[in-house]
Structures are given as structure tokens and as C-alpha cells.
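As promised in the previous annual report, we have extended the structural survey to additional targets. Below is the entry for Tryptophan--tRNA ligase.
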Amino acid sequence: TKQIFSGVQPSGNFTLGNYIGAMKRFVALQEEGNCIYSIVDLHSITVPKEPKALREYTMQLAAMYLSIGINPEKSILFIQSHVKEHAELGWLMQCTGYIGELERMTQYKDKSTGKDVVTCGLLTYPALMAADILLYDATHVPVGEDQKQHLEFTRDMAERFNKKYGETFVVPEPMIQEFGGRIMSLDDPSKKMSKSNPNAASYVALLDEPSAIVKKIKRAVTDSEGIVRYDKVNKPAISNLLTIYSVCSNEPIETIEQRYEGRGYGDFKKDLAEVVVNALTPIQQEYTRWMASPELEDILKQGAERATAIASVTMDRARRNMGLVTF
Ligand code: AQP
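The corresponding C-alpha cell record, generated without further manual editing, is:
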């Protein structure tokens, strides 16, 4: 059976990109193996947050996971900082990876360029991510395409550690969708849709009101050809909108292309907004329910216990193999 691990950062404003690229698949994967999903708060503090906002985002993400259909009886859902082994193995991974490898990461370059101050954690982020995955002997890791390089690093760490200290970790496989693995910004199809983009018109947030969704999609960048056709190279903006349409409506691209033959972008965008609103409305309703639910805390506590039971075994093995004394 597959052992599946993935995480999302509680940095607020979860976007359609997060949903289509990663979270939507988390739900389906519950039928394919043992799933372990984390709210990776330790990752989110690599860019310092207001304590109050971090607390809120964390609980909001927990509610969001449940709202999209993560079943806590099937899957383990937990807050990363509740399982201390993440920080501990993260350190061992920092002592396994090299600075040069970390400095080459495009996410690090993107997020550090032009900043007055950059935390140490932003650089060592991939070491912590490697720990997250390796702790659970994950065989499969569903992520968006932006995480591909970090996944490669995780595999390198597992192999390097195993070679040096003996068989300790399972080398995981990334699961990146060819279609939807990289949703682009609405205002610039050359940039990925990102929740930390200061321009809120660049993304659809999962919790956006219908009227905001309609407005954002109406304003989305297109091209001057006026033909609804999928062509990632020459028509990146329309291809991105088609991808969103297709995933949210569960219809193949060709069906959608045919529907808008001879019609302009106006009709297409109007319907796209409706499709997105229809996909998000039930999630938003569930979300309101979960945010008010007293069960939320218990689910996370239980998740942390179940996660610790697995992580502590791997941690012992890593400690022992590396030569840290264990009694
Ligand atoms: N635009 C995207 N298209 C497809 N997948 C995406 N993911 C993120 N953006 C897109 C995937 O969502 C999962 C959770 O992401 P994360 O919380 O770890 O943060 P991130 O990858 O750094 O995404 P953001 O939205 O850009 O967040 P910020 O702005 O805070 O950095 C991951 O599997 C990711 O691949």
C-alpha cells in the first residue's frame, strides 16, 4: 500500500492553486493508501508571522482540510509543531544537506531576493520538508510543480543518509499532476498563483465571496486572439483559465473548447466564474460548520498522537544509525 504524506502552510488565503495543484487530490488519495496530512506551521514561520494571525490561519487550514473532504477517521491530520520529531529530524537533515544545495533552490531565491532580512529557516526550509516526508516512510508525496525541486532534495537526503549510515529512510516518489500541477496568476500567466502575492486580484482564494470571484475572473488577463483554445505555449492565460474550468467542472478541455467555439472570452469567463463559484460554495458551507465545531481540536490532538506513534519510530532509527547515543 502507498504511504502518502503532504503538507500545506498555514499562511492564509488558500488559493485555487493550492486546491487544484495539491489539496483536491488529497481527498481522492484517501482511497489509495494511508494518508498523512499536515498543517506545516513550522514552515510558515520561515517568513515571520503575527502570532495571532498564525494561530488563526492554523485553525482555518485545519477546517479547510476537513471541508474539502479529508476524513479524520481514514487520514491522519495534524499540526506539524505538535510532533516534535519534525524539528528534531529537521536538524539531522540540516547536517546532511549542503549550503550550496539549499542556495540553489528557486523558492529560496524567489523569496529572499530583494528582502532586507532573510531568516535562516527560509534557507533550510527544504531540510525540514525532507524530515516531514521521511519521518512517515512516505512512498508518495502529492505536491504542486513548485515543490518538485524540494522533493528532489528530499530524495537526495534519504539516499545520502542511507548510504552513509545504513538503510534508514524510504526514498519517496513525487506525485505531480501534468495538468493542474501549476496554476498561474490571473494577472500574469507567467507567474504561479500564490497566496502571498500582495495583489489579491491575482488569485482566487478558496474563501472568496462569489461576487469577488466573478470580479477577479472578469478582470483576468487573456490574449487578443479571442479563441477559447488550449495552447500552453502561445496562449498561457486562456490555457490556465481552461485548466481551472476543466478541474472545477470535471469536464475534459475539448468539451469546453467546443462549447465556446465562435464565442468570445466574455461568455467563457462568465461561465467560468459560475463553475468556480459552484465548486467552492459547498466547501465554504462546510468550512463555516467546521470553524464552529468543537470537534476540531480533538481531531488535531488525535492526529498528533497517531503521527507521533509513527514518527518516533523513524526518529529512533535515524538517531541510532547516525551514532547519537540511545539508551
Ligand atoms: N499555483 C499553484 N499551482 C499548483 N499547485 C500549487 N501549490 C501552491 N501554489 C500552486 C501547491 O499547494 C501546496 C501547498 O502549498 P504551500 O502552502 O506549501 O505553499 P507554496 O507552495 O509556497 O504555495 P503558495 O500559495 O505560493 O504559498 P506562499 O505564497 O505562502 O509561498 C503545495 O503542494 C504546492 O505545490
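The pocket of adenosine-5'-tetraphosphate is lined by residues 8-9, 11, 15, 17-18, 20-22, 143-144, 146-147, 181-183, 192-196 (CB under 6 Å). The chain has a mean pLDDT of 97. These points will be discussed at the next consortium meeting with the crystallography subgroup.
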